[in-house]
Amino acid sequence: MTAREILSPGKTVADSQPKRLIDADMPLLEVLPRLLDTPGREVGVRDGDVSLGVIDQGSMLEGLGKMLAARDDCSMVTVECRPEEYSASHLAHAVEDSDAHLVDLFTVPAEDGMLRVTMRIRSLDPTSAVHNLERYDYHVVEAYGGAGDSRYEGVAFERLMSLQTLLNV
User: Nearest Cα to 43, choosing from 27, 23, 25?
Assistant: First the structure.
């Protein structure tokens, strides 16, 4: 997804005078840090010399939401590992060895120099994936079942609210 795909409806560059302009083909995940660095939390989008519009916090959040497909058949598992041990393909292999599929994988640095990797796994019960990840020497921090598990819904809501808070800073 690119910047041109998440323009805020009804806003133009002339209306809001954004402090920063970005290219229309910039990937969405590169737009986010630029949006957070601007005082008005708005960036203008241009295609060459033509102004296309503005991205604000609301349109950014909506764009990020479109990138994460809603699934009722998934569970969440979070592991920690040292950066030199991190391998997305190794994690995917561990998950797929449990007859589940890796849907999403998000990596963030943890406070103690470790990497925290949150995975959405296509299985309502993450137990077998957790056992495999531990067998592959990953430290499982959290695991929540799918749609019927209220812990999963709470974590999803908490993470969405964290993102909203980050955008509102």
Answer: 23
User: Beta strand 50-56 with 42-47: parallel, antiparallel or unpaired?
Assistant: antiparallel
Under 8 Å CB-to-CB from 72, ≥6 apart: which residues? 146, 147
Distance CA 58, CA 106 (A): 22
Strands (E), the chain: 20-23, 42-47, 50-56, 75-81, 101-109, 115-122, 139-144
- Mean pLDDT, residues 121-148 taken together: 87
Is 154's pLDDT higher than 70? no
Contacts of the segment 104-113: beta carbons below 8 A, 24+ positions apart: 104/68, 110/80, 113/82, 113/83
If we measure between CA atoms, which residue out of 85, 86, 75, 88 comes closest to residue 128? Answer: 75
| 3-state class percentages of the chain: helix first, strand second, coil last, to nearest 5 | 40, 30, 30
Distance (Å, whole) CA 73 – CA 26: 32
Six-digit token string for 30: 């590169």
Count Cα neighbours of 142 within 13 Å in the Cβ-side half-sphere.
15
| 109-115 average pLDDT score | 88
Averaged pLDDT for residues 17-30: 84
Report the distance separating Cα 104 and Cα 77, nearest Å.
Answer: 11
